[in-house]
Description:
The structure holds two protein chains of two kinds. Chain A is mainly α. Helices cover 78% and strands 0% of the residues of chain A. The relative contact order of chain A is 0.17. Chain B is of the alpha+beta class. In chain B, the strands form three sheets. In chain B, strands 1, 2, 3, 4, 5, 6, 7, 8, 9, 10, 11, 12 and 13 form a 13-stranded mixed beta sheet that branches. Chain B has a three-stranded mixed beta sheet with strand order 15-18-17. In chain B, helix 1 (11-24) crosses helix 3 (40-56) and helix 4 (59-69) crosses helix 5. Classes of the chains: A mainly alpha, B alpha+beta. The interface between A and B is medium-sized, with 34 and 34 residues.
Amino acid sequence: MTARQDIAxxxxxxxxxxxxxxxxFLLNRVEGYSFREIGRRKGLNEWAVKRKIFKVLDHLLxxxxxx
Amino acid sequence: MTDEEPGLLTLSQQxxxxxxxxxxxxxxxxAARNWxxxxxxxxxxxxxxxxxxxNIVDPASxxxxxxQNSHKSDSRPRSPWAxxxxxxxxxxLLLLGAHFVLGQNLRSPSAPTPIASSDGKYDDAPLxxxxxxxxxxxxxxxxxxxxxxxxxxxxxxxxxxxxxxxTLDHGRAIFAVAHDVSRPFxxxxxxxxxxxxxxxxxxxxxxxxxxxxxxYEGRIAVTPPCETRKSSASAAKSYLxxxxxxxxxxxxxVTGNAVTEPAPANDExxxxxxxxxxxxxxxxILAEVNLYSDVKLVAASxxxxxxxxxxxxxxxxxxxxxxxxxRALGLTVENQGxxxxxxxx
Lengths: 67, 345
């Protein structure tokens, strides 16, 4: 697999995400907010935030490892 | 860990949750350690998840790339999604965490040098670097030190404010250490340490308690591997001069098992893949070549194994080595199946 294909795969996996879940994930992994802070901002409890972020993480990593 | 039912999750998924739990709250570390201690598979899954999460979707990667981009005139604001795409793409290019099958393009000599950028945020979570059989890669650490990691190796890196700790679990590496007198750079293998402030040296650990250290430039202090706690307190440090090598033969707790000797002139040549052997025994050459490939090169008899030869060989290519040795020594190469080449008379 070429580097270009790798990038295309990453982008495709990101595209497939539910926009709200993706936003939660980005707030944690890119912006560095904790689960609790995200919950406070989005009106969710910490466990719900955690569940959604883990779901996204699995989607991304399973997708990349499966290649 | 979470309120999810562990039984419904794969081992990889559970490992990812533990990695995230420790990052969210370092106080969870002991619980994560207990989980890892359940089996070697648990530990391996944790290591893979840790590398993946550090290197594929880590905020530090994004910050690194943003710093790179901040020098450019194009300063359009990026959406968070674009930032993650960059992080993921960057990671895909760099292919940190070589457990991923994605690593194919690292073999290309034009592949960019991976950057280990932990930002010091997760001081105790190591960055893990591994190489597959046949793979040799350069890694630039957050402090600017450059590591060349040889085939079939595993390295754990922890950067602290007051020190730089690297563990060579297995394999061989050369370290070009960025000068920083306030943070000693220590490489540990089986408890034996090599400490430098800014220099270039190599460490090899291919078998339990067998450690070789070679100094190319500067000055280092070395302590023996596999010392008992009692003896390590009094373990004498050995200081090497450039061009010297110290070999520990692997007998634990016995002092005096170290040999200091001039480093062979070809010691560093594995980094480029072409090695010059001067009057070397065939079995020594075969042992080194066999580190790089699943195709095993063997001598048909002890007599052939003991033959000596001078040659310049592409050590990562067993077919090429077999051909050259056969020609130089008047032998023939016999193919036994797809993964065994025998040098025979």
